[in-house]
Amino acid sequence: MTAVFEASSWSSLRGEAVRAMCGVSPLACSLLRPVGLALVPFSDYLRRMPPRSRPSASIFEIEIRLREIKPVVWRRLLVPASIRLGALHSVLNETMGWTNSHLHSFKLDERSFGDPRLDPDGELDFEDERKVKLDSLIDVGAFITYEYDFGDSWEHDVRVLRRRESDDRLHYPLCVAGARACPPEDCGGAHGYELLLRSLGDEKHPEHDESLTWVGGLFDPEGFDVNRTNHALHTLRLRL
């Protein structure tokens, strides 16, 4: 709404107070008087304005479970429903604790999605993950398979638990829960990981010292820190 002003004298008002409240120049205060509007500080006026309406983006709450590992390694995330699979790969990799040093793919029924730049000969027959949005493939209750490292073959179930409205107080993607560390890279898949934990947990095991050196001196299979994970996701958001 545009306010209409008329020339007049404000001598009956305390000029300095008026100028301070309105935040306008002394010349404007000496020449102009609002017609039909209460004189209020501009900051108060803004607070009285109705909030600007804008569409609320849909958010998926998803759960990621690593197959073949007991107890289960899992994470729960809030991500935009329209996130593209290429970005989702980066989010899943960071959240689980992988190092993004191997090939990956998404699978849904007979379809396979990946980064064609990593398959220049087209042998893997990927659909381009950078062009496909998550909510175009699955919705609440459904899941898609995420595979990381075709050698160790770490397969994850990525399931949509529920759909939410976006919350302006939050930054997405956001990790809200999880448990246990993902296995060390290149440990030989689920079976190799089982053998590794067995040797690390038994000081008399013939491969204990070698395994301890290989993991760098310490590996806690129960270790998971949601704060550290979200710090990593915050850094990732700047690159997505």
Could you give a short description of this structure?
With 240 residues, the protein is an alpha+beta fold.
Fraction of residues in β-strands: 15-25%
Radius of gyration: 29 Å
Number of E strands: 10
Number of domains: 3
Order of SSEs, N→C? EHHEHEEHEEEEEEHHH
Average pLDDT number: 84
Terminal Cα separation, in Å? 39 Å
Number of helices: 7
* CATH-assigned homologous superfamily of the largest domain: MM3350-like
Give the overall shape, derived from the CA principal axes.
Answer: globular
Describe this structure in words.
- The chain is α+β, with helices and mostly antiparallel strands and 240 residues long.
- The protein has 3 domains: 5-48, no CATH class; 58-181 and 228-237, MM3350-like (Structural Genomics Hypothetical 15.5 Kd Protein In mrcA-pckA Intergenic Region, Chain A), CATH 3.10.290; 184-221, no CATH class.
- 27% of the residues lie in helices and 24% in strands.
- The chain contains 7 helices and 10 strands.
- It has helices at 15-22, 26-31, 42-48, 85-96, 189-200, 208-214, 226-237; strands at 5-7, 32-34, 58-66, 74-80, 104-108, 111-114, 127-128, 143-148, 154-165, 174-179.
- The strands form 2 sheets. It has an 8-stranded mixed sheet.
- Strand 5 (104-108) and strand 6 (111-114) form a beta hairpin.
- The model is unreliable at 1-38 and 49-54 (pLDDT under 50).
Main attributes of the structure:
single chain; Structural Genomics Hypothetical 15.5 Kd Protein In mrcA-pckA Intergenic Region, Chain A; 3 domains; disordered N terminus; alpha+beta; 8-stranded mixed beta sheet
